[in-house]
Specification:
This protein has 263 residues and is of the alpha/beta class. It contains 8 helices and 15 strands. The strands form 3 sheets. The chain has a 7-stranded antiparallel β-sheet. A 6-stranded mixed β-sheet has the order 10-9-8-11-12-15, sandwiched between helices. Strands 13-14 form a two-stranded antiparallel ribbon. The two termini are 31 Å apart. Bound molecules: FE2/S2 (inorganic) cluster.
Length: 263
C-alpha cells in the first residue's frame, strides 16, 4: 500500500454528485478495479480524516473518485477543494476484481451509487476485446449511469422501480423469462462482477442457482461495500462475517467470491 500526495486536476459536476480526478501516477498504476483508496479530507492532523473511495476511472496517470450528495463534512471538504489542491491518498486497499484470461463474456451487475465502482472493470474489459454487459438498477432514470459514459461495445441494461417490482425485473433479466423464451444474462456470462448493497447478493445468488444449480467458486465476484479506517488490518473496524468467519474486509476483500458472502 502506498501513501502518496495526489493533485486534484479536474472537477466535474454530474447531477447531484461531483467527480474529482486526481493525478497520482504511482498509485494509479497500482490500482485494480474494486480496490479502495483512503483519501484524507482536510488539512489538519486529526486521525479520522480519511474517507473510503472506490475509483470510478483509472488510467496510467490519474484516478477519479465520485463524491455523492450528502452531509458528510469530509465530502464537503472535497467538494470545496480548489483544483491544484494536494490530497493525501493511501491505497490500493485490499483485493479487487479479477477477470481471468480466457473469459469472453463479462456480466457486470450494479445497484445505485455502487454501480459506478464497476466503471473501471467495464472499461478495461471492453478494451481487452471482451463482450461486456452492464446491468444497473437505480431509483430513477436520472440516477442511472448515462449511456454515453460507456463505450459503444458495452451492452447496457437498466432497471428502475417504474411501477413494476424491481425483484421480478432482476429475475427476468438475470435468469431469463419463466417461459424460457428469453434466456437471461447469467446463461450468457462466463464471469459476473457485482457492486451492490449486501441485501442484493441473496437475489443474485438465487438467480445464479436458478440457471447454474449451484454457486460455483470463481463464477461471481462481489464488492463488499465497506468503509475503512486504516486499510491495513490494524484497527479491526472493518471486521465482518464473511468467507466462513470473522474477517477483516480490508485484507480479504473488499471483493469476495459470491459464495463467501451469501450463506
Ligand atoms: S480498516 Fe482497519 S482493519 Fe480493516
Amino acid at each position: 500500500m502506498l501513501q502518496t500526495t495526489a493533485t486534484l486536476i479536474t472537477r466535474m459536476t454530474t447531477g447531484p454528485a461531483q467527480e474529482l480526478t486526481l493525478r497520482a501516477p504511482e498509485l494509479a498504476r497500482a490500482l485494480v478495479p474494486g480496490q479502495a483508496v483512503l483519501v484524507k479530507c482536510g488539512w489538519g492532523l486529526e486521525p479520522y480524516l480519511r474517507r473510503t473511495f472506490y475509483p470510478i476511472a483509472v488510467d496510467d496517470e490519474t484516478w477519479t473518485l465520485r463524491v455523492p450528495p450528502g452531509s458528510d463534512w469530509g465530502h464537503a471538504w472535497l467538494r470545496a477543494a480548489p483544483v491544484g489542491t494536494p490530497i493525501d491518498c493511501l491505497g490500493p486497499v485490499g483485493v479487487g476484481y479479477l477477470v481471468p484470461l480466457g473469459v469472453r463474456n463479462l456480466l457486470c451487475v450494479g445497484v445505485g451509487e455502487l454501480a459506478w465502482t464497476l466503471m473501471p472493470v467495464v472499461t478495461q474489459a471492453a478494451a481487452r476485446g471482451l463482450s461486456v454487459a452492464l446491468a444497473m438498477e437505480a431509483r430513477t432514470p436520472r440516477e442511472l449511469i448515462p449511456a454515453q459514459r460507456l463505450t459503444a461495445a458495452v451492452e447496457y441494461h437498466t432497471l428502475t422501480a417504474d411501477g413494476r417490482r424491481i425483484e421480478s425485473q432482476w429475475a427476468g433479466l438475470l435468469a431469463g423469462e419463466a417461459s424460457g423464451a428469453q434466456p437471461g444474462l447469467i446463461a450468457w456470462a462466463d464471469v459476473v462482477v457485482a457492486a451492490a448493497p449486501l441485501t442484493f447478493y441473496g437475489q443474485l445468488a438465487a438467480a445464479v442457482k436458478a440457471v447454474r444449480y449451484d454457486i460455483s467458486r470463481g463464477f461471481a465476484q462481489v464488492l463488499y461495500p465497506a468503509t475503512f479506517l486504516c486499510g491495513s488490518g490494524a484497527c479491526q473496524t472493518c471486521v465482518a462475517d464473511v468467507a466462513g468467519g470473522r474477517r477483516r474486509v480490508c485484507l480479504r476483500g473488499p471483493v469476495f467470491d459470491l459464495a463467501d458472502v451469501v450463506t
